[in-house]
Amino acid sequence: MNREVRLFRGEVFYFISSPLESKDSYCYYPDGALLVSDGKVADSGPYETLHARYPSVPETDYSGKLIMPGFIDSHIHYSQSEIIGMHGCQLLDWLNDYTYPAEQAFSSREHAEKTARFFIHELLKNGTTTCMAYATVHPESVDALFTIASEYDMCMLTGKVLMNRNAPKGLLDSTEKGEADTRRLIEKWHGKGRNRYVITPRFAITCTLDQLESVGRLHAEYPDTYIQTHLSENRDEIDSVLSLYPGHSDYLEVYERTGLMTDRTVFGHCIHLSKEECERLASAGATIAHCPTSNLFLGSGLFNMSLVNTFAIKTTLATDVAGGTSFSMFRTMGEAYKVQQLNGYPVSALELLYKCTLGSAKALHLEDKIGSFTPGSDADFIVVDYASTDSQQLRKEYLQRTNNWNIENKLFGLQILGDDRAITATYLIGKQVL
Ligand SMILES: [Zn+2]
C-alpha cells in the first residue's frame, strides 16, 4: 500500500451521476486539486481551497492538464493482443481464421505471461485502469493475467473461457472440466486483492446447453462473481444459435433459461436486439458492452444506443480488442460517436465518457471503489494532455480565441482526435505506474 499523502493540481473532472438523468452530473474544477492519501481519494475541489486546507502536503503540478478517473474497458480479449488488425471477413470466419489459432498458444504459461505483461502495459499506456477481460480456455491463461495484474495492484476482472463444442480440439473443455477449473480459479483468485472472477462462457455457439446450465449453477453458488459472454453480434451468429437451440424464440432466451441473465452479467455487442429482448435486459439489470471499433471492423452492424437508452439498459463502452482495433478508450468513444451519427443520434461527449468511467463502474457494482473521485475511492486516475498533437493544439487555440474552450469541447476533441499520446501519466491506487 502506498502510504503517501499528496495533492495533485490540474483540471479535475469526474461524474457523480449519469448525464442522461441529470444536468448536474459532474464535478469540474478548471484549477482544481485531488488529494490522495494511502492510495485513496481523500478530497477534491478548487486548488486554492485544498491548498489552504492542506498547506503542508507535498504537491504535483499538472496545471493545464486534465485529471480524471482512469478508464474502465468492460469487454476485451487479452489473448487476442497479437492478432489485432488482421484482414478478414465477419465474426465466424474471423474466429476460425485468427482467434482460435492464436488462443491455442495459451496452453503455455510462458506465452500467457508474456502476453499478459504486454496487455497490461498497453492498457495503462492508454489510461485504462480496470478491465473485464476474456482469457482463454486454459486455466493457466487466467493465472497469468491475475498474477501480472496483482504486481501492479490493478483492479482486474477476468475468467477462463468455457467452450465445449464448435472450436478446434485444443480449445475445448468439457462441462465437467470447465466447471471444476472455474470453481478452482474462483477460490484461488476471486476477491483476492483487487482481483474479481468473471464466469466466461464464450457464447452459445461454442457451449452446449449443459455447459450453459453449469454457468448458471456456478454463479448461483458464487453470486458475487460476474458473467460475461457475447450476444447478438452478427446475423449469421444469431441464425446459428437458433438452429443449435431449437424451441427458443430468440438468442437471449438461451441465456435466460440457463441462469445467465443477471445484474452482474455483461453481454458484449447486442447489436441486433428485438424490443422484447431490450425490455428483458432492462428488467434483469444486465449490462450491454458496446464495442464500436470491433463492430465496424468485423462489419457486425450499427449498435442503436438511443434505442437501448429508451429502455434504460445499463450500457458501457469497450474496445473488444482484437475484433476491436485500438486499446484506446478515446478512439473507442470517437468511433461510438460516428456509429451513432449513422443512427441519427449525435451522442454527447459527456454520455460517451460516462459510459467508460462511472457508468461502467456502476454496471460492475464497483462504484464505491472506482470510476469517480468520491472520497474513499481507490485513487486510480489519469493525467490527460488536451493537445498532444499539432492538430489538437491548433484546435485548442481556435476554441480559446473564440471563447469556446469549455469542458464539453475539450472532452469531445479528445474523443475524436485523442489516443495514447494524450495520456501523460497513469496512477493505480495513488502510485504512478506510467
Ligand atoms: Zn468479444
Describe the 3D structure.
The protein is α/β, with parallel strands linked by helices and 434 residues long. The chain has two domains: 5-70 and 372-410 and 421-432, Urease, subunit C, domain 1 (Roll); 71-363, Metal-dependent hydrolases (TIM Barrel). It is 38% helix and 23% strand. The chain has helices at residues 47-53, 91-103, 109-125, 139-152, 175-189, 209-221, 235-244, 251-257, 275-284, 292-297, 305-310, 329-342, 349-354, 358-363, 390-401, 407-417; strands at residues 5-15, 26-37, 40-46, 59-69, 71-77, 128-134, 155-159, 161-162, 195-201, 226-231, 265-269, 287-290, 314-317, 381-384, 423-428, 431-432. The strands form two sheets. Strands 5, 6, 7, 8, 9, 10, 11, 12 and 13 form a nine-stranded parallel β-sheet that branches. A seven-stranded mixed β-sheet has the order 3-2-1-4-14-15-16. It is globular and about 65 Å long. The model has no long low-confidence stretch (mean pLDDT 97). The structure holds zinc ion.
